[in-house]
Amino acid sequence: MTGPVAASVLDVREAARLRDALDATGPIGATFRQLASVLDVAPPRVQETLERWERDGSVHRLGRGLWVLRAYATLEDREDFVEPTAFDERFLEENGVAIGRYSGPITFRSNETLPVHRWWPYVQGYSAEFVRGVLAAQGVAAGAVVLDPFAGSGTTLVEARRAGAAAIGVELLAPAVLAARVKTTFELDPGRLERRAASVARSALRRRPAGLPFLRETRRQFTPDALAELLRLRDALPPEGEASADAVRLAFGRILIPSSRLHRSPCLGYRRGDADDDATPGGRFLAAIGTMAEDLRALGGEADRWGPPARVVRGDARVLDVPPGSVDLVLTSPPYVNGMDYVMNYKVDLAWLGYAGSYAELRRLRGAEVACDNLPRRETAGYLGFASAPDPWLGEILRRIDRNVRRKGTYRRNDMHAVVHRYFADLLPVLRRARDALRPGGTFVLVVGDSLLAGAYVPGDLLLARIAARQGLEIVSVDVARRRRSGQRRSFELRESVVTLRRPVS
Ligand SMILES: C[S@@+](CC[C@H](N)C(=O)[O-])C[C@H]1O[C@@H](n2cnc3c(N)ncnc32)[C@H](O)[C@@H]1O
Asked: Which helix (H) or strand (E) element contains residue 393?
């Protein structure tokens, strides 16, 4: 007989051990392969047993292939789980602020069709409409100073400058810094930009494709034709520094992912199926330049309202250096708890634009990022304890994460609580420096998300508000702007909030 042989389910003793092993993973759960390795049996046998149990309802499959006992299918009813609403109630009791709502678009998506903002789509950014609303509500006008310590692609800076303010931004990720610089250089002459881009395109045609960027997967990431054309364009780019040269480089950076087999959703990964269109890299590049020129021409009509040229600093927000009392509004969105590894997500842009020349350099850049899940283990060594957590709630939450991870025995990383600890420790100096930079009475608005980690809820918005309050800022409001789903438990609703703080007048 031929054909696939069905895997046999586990025998009674093995099944009992499987149930115990799964129980030990608690709310975190495990994949069938992890469980098979604990039991030391063939993975298909564990898989088949779990699927049988799923049919009788005794186990539950979470998102991307994690199994949990039915008792952990939903966290909300469990005694050992502290729900978001419980934190909200405690926040009202202890901090005197009830959670409100913000309505209006908050994600970057609505920027994708907006002049200037569309020059560099940044999934991690927020909406220009939201920024305009905050600027208007805070009465930001000519002469005001606006600071964004995690400036990203410069959404705050573009809108602050358009409103007449002096805009200052700090950002670590070089391609985002380039985007923010170019997008805030409203004086750029569109004709000059088009001429410069045309000369790059002509010069690229005459070149032979030269060395590949250092990324090991480059040949897999592009078709041979697209790769050859991109290499020629890259080698024809002018060096960074002058405004039209920077803009041409940004247009090139902007077409890298659309010209590849990759996409961001929001993390970088291989696309399934073909590209949306069959444009060549050269065609995309000139189209991007055309869009920029069109927007610059339209922008020129409001030149009398622009604030002074924005200051965009490539650097680490934790060592932000802005004169004390000089800023009217800090408006920002930091990375989220256990959120994205920006360096790895933008490694293609970093490599092709020449901002990183090796994996060692990528790792070094990552070392300066606000802590995320990919943080090297040595970077969490100082954060394994609980006592130094900058807020008592955080101490409790860190213990809960640690307990769940220990109970499971193996987890993605057994220092998960220390990653979370380090995240808040990284944001602490930013909160302090932003407080000092604000004038008395000045406002600090943060857009931030929460997280569910190792079966424990982490209210990132409330924790940051409380930590800021301990640094002498007043909590004005916390407004939920949208619900979102992330991570393994897609059924669990996370949120993104607008936290508004104020530096007291005296
Ligand atoms: C949520 S995004 C901000 C997006 C921005 N509001 C926009 O609309 O484009 C957070 C940013 O923080 C940056 N970042 C991470 N660690 C940083 C650090 N230590 N200093 C400065 N920026 C950092 C990331 O590169 C990312 O661009």
From this structure: helix 392-408
Give the integer Cα–Cα distance in Å for 157 and 145. Answer: 10
Q: How confident is the model at residue 488 (pLDDT cuts 50, 70, 90)?
A: low
Per residue in 183-228, pLDDT tens?
Answer: 999 999 999 999 999 999 999 998 887 899 999 999 999 999 999 9
Say which DSSP state 355 is in.
Answer: S
Domains and CATH numbers, the chain: 12-72 (1.10.10.10), 187-305+340-369 (no CATH)
Rounded CA gap, 365 and 374, in Å?
12
Q: Please state, in angstroms and rounded to a whole number, the distance separating the CA atoms of residues 185 and 188.
A: 6
Structure confidence at residue 266 as a pLDDT band (50, 70, 90)? confident
Q: What is the average per-residue pLDDT within 36-50?
A: 90
Instruction: Give the residue among 73, 20, 7 at the shortest CA–CA distance from 46.
Output: 7
Give the residue, by CA position, lying nearest to ligand 1 atom 27: 152
Whether residue 266 is preceded by a cis peptide bond, meaning omega within 30 degrees of 0, is yes
Alpha carbon distance 142, 293 (integer Å): 26
Q: Give the position, in ligand 1's atom list, of the atom nearest the Cα of 370.
A: 16
Give CA–CA dist 203/22, Å, rounded. 61
- 316 touches ligand 1 (CB under 6 Å): yes
Ligand 1 touching residue 124 (CB < 6 A): yes
**Ligand 1 atom closest to the CA of 334, numbered from 1:** 10
Cβ of 370 below 6 Å from ligand 1:
yes
Whole-prediction pTM: 0.90
**What is the arithmetic mean of pLDDT over 340-356?**
94
Q: Residue 141: CB within 6 Å of ligand 1?
A: no
Confidence grade of residue 506 (pLDDT, cut at 50, 70, 90) = confident
Please tell me if the CB atom of residue 150 comes closer than 6 angstroms to any atom of ligand 1.
yes
CA of 170 to the centre of ligand 1 (A): 8
What's residue 1's pLDDT? 41
Residue 122 CA to residue 179 CA, distance in Å, equals: 10
